[in-house]
Backbone:
């Protein structure tokens, strides 16, 4: 019995409590507060409701306010005309599950189906693909991070208990006015037909909201969708970071990661080939699926490989100083062009290459490696892919000041893939033999272009693009 209780405790901790804590404490895949000068985000859960949602939309239109509606799929299915009106009037529609039930009490597959079904309803009726998700009661489970795909979790910075009628209009209004300030993400409810709510509680919310909107408009605040709030927040954070540099928490996280990096390198005997190389390596038996490379080489389990690792200290420097994915890619290409020959020369001197068949690596940054001679493969689905994706994305978030925005805006570009090249092909391409061939080719090109006499007689002088005899 004691063991069973212990396993229940472990399950609840890792399946339910820990993911929720991580999301709220560290903002992992979560947005809950903006950083703006005069914008506030209004969000409404549990609707649409045929009585209160139309009145809410009228009120928002009266004050020129935009909002985000996290709809329950079953309610939306019964009132598609309200979804269409939300979209037509410029509001954002997000997902709040198909039924209002906590994710803790549903299996991962059930949650995934609820999200997909609600997404289909919104897309079919409103003509927009939802990209935001709010789990009922803000509760996530361990597998939600994998199930959500492109969706971003939206929580809140202020909640007022407006689903209970006994709170009353006066007290609700006072609570809301205390949160009349920029960057707030307000959680309100336009439907009282969910578990624990009072059916006519939205009446109080509408009265309190009108006071809030009127006061906010008089003070010059703008009421925006969650998408606009996120965009403004990203812009302001980027500007602040450019002016002040990374904050204490990010600097501390990056420093801790670098300590972990050194421990990892020592523990797994990662080799630095020197010459400030971006690429480090270790030699180990291959443990993945069979790979057939472009040159016909086949890598099978237990074959010896050179496993490649980025120098994350250098990667941190690149990411910290690059403001876009394109600039990161350009910097990586330049470093790779210099580092690959360095690695090849080091491997030629390595005494432990007996039986090594290929170079192998897994990375999120994998665009364009074919130009360097690598074959690229999708990482097979499974636990390794799941945890590798999370690990590498966390690495990007820690090392890059704009990592969160990069991952959100360019998510399709950041998924792990395998890169591999036969060792023979690598050494032919980047080793000392390749250097010698390049030197010979350069010499032939120089002769073909015309050798310049030692005294310089007859050599052209380039001035303004014209070749003039000396």
Residues:
């Amino acid at each position: 019995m004691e063991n069973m209780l212990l396993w229940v405790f472990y399950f609840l901790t890792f399946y339910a409590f820990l993911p929720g804590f991580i999301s709220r404490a560290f903002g992992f895949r979560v947005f809950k507060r903006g950083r703006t000068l005069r914008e506030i985000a209004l969000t409404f859960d549990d609707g649409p409701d045929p009585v209160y949602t139309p009145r809410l939309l009228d009120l928002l239109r009266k004050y020129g306010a935009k909002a985000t509606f996290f709809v329950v799929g079953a309610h939306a299915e019964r009132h598609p005309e309200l979804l269409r009106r939300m979209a037509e009037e410029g509001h954002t529609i997000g997902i709040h599950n198909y039924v209002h039930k906590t994710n803790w009490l549903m299996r991962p597959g059930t949650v995934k189906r609820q999200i997909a079904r609600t997404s289909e309803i919104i897309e079919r009726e409103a003509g927009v693909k939802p990209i935001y998700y709010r789990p009922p009661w803000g509760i996530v489970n361990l597998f939600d991070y994998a199930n959500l795909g492109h969706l971003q979790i939206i929580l809140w910075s202020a909640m007022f208990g407006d689903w209970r009628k006994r709170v009353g209009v006066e007290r609700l209004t006072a609570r809301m006015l205390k949160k009349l300030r920029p960057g707030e993400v307000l959680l309100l409810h336009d439907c009282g037909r969910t578990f624990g709510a009072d059916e006519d509680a939205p009446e109080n919310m509408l009265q309190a909201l009108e006071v809030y909107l009127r006061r906010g408009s008089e003070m010059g605040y703008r009421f925006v969708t969650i998408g606009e709030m996120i965009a403004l927040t990203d812009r302001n954070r980027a500007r602040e970071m450019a002016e002040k540099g990374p904050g204490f928490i990010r600097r501390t996280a990056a420093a801790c990661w670098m300590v972990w990096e050194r421990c990892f390198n020592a523990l797994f005997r990662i080799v630095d080939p020197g010459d400030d190389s971006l690429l480090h390596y270790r030699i180990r038996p291959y443990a993945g699926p069979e790979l057939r490379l472009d040159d016909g080489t086949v890598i099978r389990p237990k074959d010896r490989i050179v496993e490649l690792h980025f120098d994350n200290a250098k990667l941190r420097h690149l990411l910290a100083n690059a403001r876009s994915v394109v600039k990161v890619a350009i910097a990586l290409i330049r470093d790779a062009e210099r580092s690959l020959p360095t690695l090849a020369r080091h491997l030629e001197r390595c005494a432990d290459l007996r039986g090594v068949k290929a170079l192998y690596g897994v990375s999120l940054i994998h665009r364009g490696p074919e130009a360097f001679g690598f074959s690229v493969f999708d990482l097979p689905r499974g636990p390794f892919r799941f945890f590798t994706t999370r690990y590498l994305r966390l690495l990007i978030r820690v090392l890059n000041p704009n990592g969160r925005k990069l991952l959100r805006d360019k998510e399709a570009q950041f998924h792990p893939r395998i890169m591999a090249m036969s060792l023979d092909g690598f050494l032919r391409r980047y080793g000392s033999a390749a250097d010698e061939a390049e030197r010979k080719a350069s010499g032939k090109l120089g002769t073909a272009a015309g050798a310049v006499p030692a005294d310089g007689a007859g050599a052209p002088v380039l001035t303004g693009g014209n070749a003039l005899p000396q």
User: Anything to note?
Assistant: The chain has two domains: 24-242, 246-430. The two ends are 99 Å apart (CA to CA). Residues 246-430 form a domain with the Aminopeptidase fold (CATH 3.40.630).
